[in-house]
Write a structure and sequence with these properties.
Shape: globular
Number of strands: 15
Strand content: 15-25%
Number of helices: 7
Number of domains: 1
Structural class: alpha/beta
Bound molecules: flavin-adenine dinucleotide
């Protein structure tokens, strides 16, 4: 199994696409000194659920839209459609968008449409390039869809369909991922811990019980993560007795985690401190953009692009999260019985309903499913209950 197959949450295929690709990406035995420190069990109780959120990933079979279009007297640089990878690729994708926006020189002002992961990073990068930036958006954090993400480094989660992206996309993706990786490193150790390394454990009693329920229609999603093997830690297999889980097979992976509440706040504050402005606006058709004073716009409307640009290539991929009260003493992730848990500072994310990549595909229903949320919390309760017994 490779790192990508391990990953869940943001939506990497889990347990269903775990063919090893090359030795460096294979699971390795943990070093003897790498035994798991005592882990506090997650208090997975239905009465500790304080909210359920649903979000739509803006997926495009051909990858994100990043071309430049002329609308009236405006140059519009598109930067939307990042599927389950929007946070992970944000800085890289936005740096390409800003390059295009400023191409030719002489640009003094840029308007950014959207205030999610892509809008905020585009705005900050344009600002850092020396131009005056205004963000126009219908919602800002915490009301944007980006605020409802799991918060993991998942740069090739539902980013394209295999064979549908342009030939140059894998190289472009690699560049975007590496640029983002480097930028997120600069947020480690920052007050509020917007970005942090955390361990996740995949706990299994055998492969068969762990398969996600897939819909009959199966699409093959593009996988690029192996090109990042040189910068990513490997997945480790933990020997029995070195961990507290009541399971035959346990693996561990260290991953970059985005504490999204704090990260969004840091990004908004940085933008405002540098003189940026955020204005409430809703654009119903491209013609509405004519009212803006800027000649150059970066379009970061995420799933909203489907309606704004009548772009039916943007497919919704629904994802639901149940939130448990935070536990600072239990800062880790868990993958168990088709549920992904991530104990973030702003809440414990329990991503339910199946974590295979087809889950939620073409489903635009953003209403919460409480029964599914409770079911996932109970699965984790079953595991953590036994974990507690073993630790006593
Ligand atoms: C359950 C779930 C878990 C996820 N986990 C991860 C993860 O762990 N890691 C990861 O990298 N990604 C993850 N994602 C994917 C990530 O959330 C998206 O790729 C990302 O949110 C897209 O960001 P965005 O800025 O393009 O869109 P949004 O956050 O939706 O922002 C769009 C902005 O545009 C504005 N807007 C839209 N239309 C208009 C309009 N017509 N007029 C004015 N304003 C408009 C909105 O108000 C908003 O401000 C997850 C997604 C889901 C659903």
């Amino acid at each position: 199994m490779n790192r990508r197959a391990f990953l869940a949450g943001g939506g990497a295929t889990v347990f269903t696409a775990c063919a090893p690709r090359k030795p460096s990406a294979a699971i390795v035995p943990a070093a003897p000194l790498a035994a798991v420190p005592p882990l506090a069990p997650i208090r997975a109780q239905v009465d500790r659920m304080f909210r359920i959120t649903v979000c739509l990933r803006p997926f495009r079979a051909q990858g994100p839209r990043m071309d430049v279009e002329t609308v009236g007297d405006k140059r519009v640089v598109h930067n939307y459609g990042h599927g389950g990878s929007g946070w992970s690729l944000s800085w890289g994708s936005s740096s390409l968008a800003v390059e295009k926006a400023l191409e030719g020189g002489g640009v003094r002002e840029v308007g950014v449409i959207g205030c999610g992961a892509l809008g905020l990073t585009s705005a900050l990068l344009a600002q850092r390039a020396g131009v005056k930036v205004t963000i126009y958006a219908k919602e800002r954090p915490p009301d944007v869809r980006s605020a409802r993400a799991t918060g993991l480094w998942t740069p090739d989660s539902r980013i394209a369909l295999a064979g549908h992206a342009p030939a140059n996309f894998p190289a472009l993706w690699d560049r975007m991922a590496r640029t983002s990786w480097k930028m997120y490193e600069s947020y480690l150790g920052v007050a509020g811990d917007p970005v942090e390394w955390m361990d996740s454990y995949m706990v299994s009693n055998g492969v068969s019980g762990q398969r996600s329920q897939q819909s009959p229609q199966q699409l093959e999603f593009a996988k690029y993560n192996q090109s990042l093997d040189d910068i990513l830690p490997q997945v480790e297999r933990l020997a029995p007795g070195t961990h507290p889980f009541p399971a035959k097979v346990v693996s561990r992976m260290s991953n970059l985690t985005f504490h999204v509440a704090s990260l969004s706040r840091v990004l908004v504050n940085d933008f405002l401190i540098e003189g940026g402005r955020i204005e409430h606006a809703e654009f119903r058709t491209p013609n509405d953009l004519a009212s803006l004073p800027q000649r150059v716009l970066i379009d970061c409307t995420g799933y909203g692009a489907r309606a704004l640009w009548s772009d039916e290539s943007v497919v919704p991929v629904r994802g639901q999260i149940a939130w448990l009260i935070p536990q600072p003493e239990a800062r880790y992730g868990l993958i168990y019985d088709n549920v992904f848990v991530l104990s973030r500072r702003d809440g414990i994310v329990v991503q339910d309903g199946g974590i295979g990549e087809m889950e939620g595909y073409n489903n635009a229903d953003e209403s919460p499913d409480r029964a599914a949320a409770e079911n996932s919390v109970r699965k984790i309760a079953a595991l953590c209950g036994q974990m507690a017994v073993r630790q006593r």
